Fold HNH nuclease domain-containing protein.
Amino acid sequence: MCSGDLGGGDVLDDVAALVAERNRIDAALARRVRAAELSQAPERDGLKSMASWLGGHCRLSPAEAFRLVRNGRAIEHLPALGEAHDAGLVSAAQVAEAARAVTPQRLSDAAAAGVDLAVIDAVFTSVAIEQEHADLVQVVQRYLDDLDPDGPEPDPTEGRSLTLSKHADGSLSIRGHLDAVGGERLQAALEAHVQADRPAGDERTRAQRQADALVQLCDNALAAGSLPIIRGIKPQVIAKISLEDLATGSGTAEMGFGAVISAARARWLACDGAVSRVVFGPDGAPLDLGREHRLADRHLRRAAELRDGGCVFTGCSAPTHWCDVHHLVHWIDGGETSLDNSALLCERHHTKVHHGFRVERQPDGRWRTWRPDGTEITVPAALGAA
């Protein structure tokens, strides 16, 4: 850019105007989300909370959905901040910071201490409008410290978090936080493998060695067979691949949690694992158990998991290990225990389809869901989709 192009005042004005407009839209959205929550609107689509509805129907991340719900609640308790948000003067991120001060427990603590919440609201709003974001973070934290000067009773589980973010190529990013004791346990377990696996000429970085140690910990736990049983099946690494691709090493394989890997890597996994043959037909694993068996055995369950990949109820993303194998035509009504008559449904939606909701698999393999009144639950198409 040449020096003559530096006077882009109009462009900067446009940016400022768009930020203000985004703030106003975020405020309106938070208020509508709160209204939907208060009216229990997600129940209409078979979901329990606005956070789950926003994730399933609007494709928001869990963190963003939770922030929207929390912001909607917060501006009810902080009306001045809410008005500034409506006017475009305060961002959703600033409201999210202030929301930390008006959780149910902290509202109760403030009432017990005789805190005038209107004063706190005014202070937060003034700082949010006139000062930098970091200043608001400090003011909110100072208020929380004053509200509970001794700090909370030690609860190591409260501050722990672990987020697994899957990328398009199937790789995983890990972000988390552990308390001092939990962190010590993790470091001790990792360090044992780090120090035990130091071959001559090892050029791995410390970060690489620790990542390998974490994978080794998981391998050991899975191999020991001592992990909790999930839906009658031991947890294990799964790679779904055709017999031809497995034999030739070409093509791809789909793993149990959705990642896609090369057929060559699947062959590598098969070298140290069991290969189960699942045939979607009458001459393979016993997929069709007829009328003599009401409950799905492990073969039928695995076939349903491979086909459905999780709960099939529209807008739900529950993984396979949360799901039951549901009879589309109830067994008591003559329905057979077969793959064609089965659908994976999480516990909540399994209950829903026994109380008026209905799921149905289309000839092209897609699942559709209907409400008790006969209207279909749909997820809006992505922008730009045909």
Residues 279-292 have pLDDT under 50 and may be disordered. The radius of gyration is 26 Å. The CA atoms of residues 170 and 258 lie 7 Å apart.
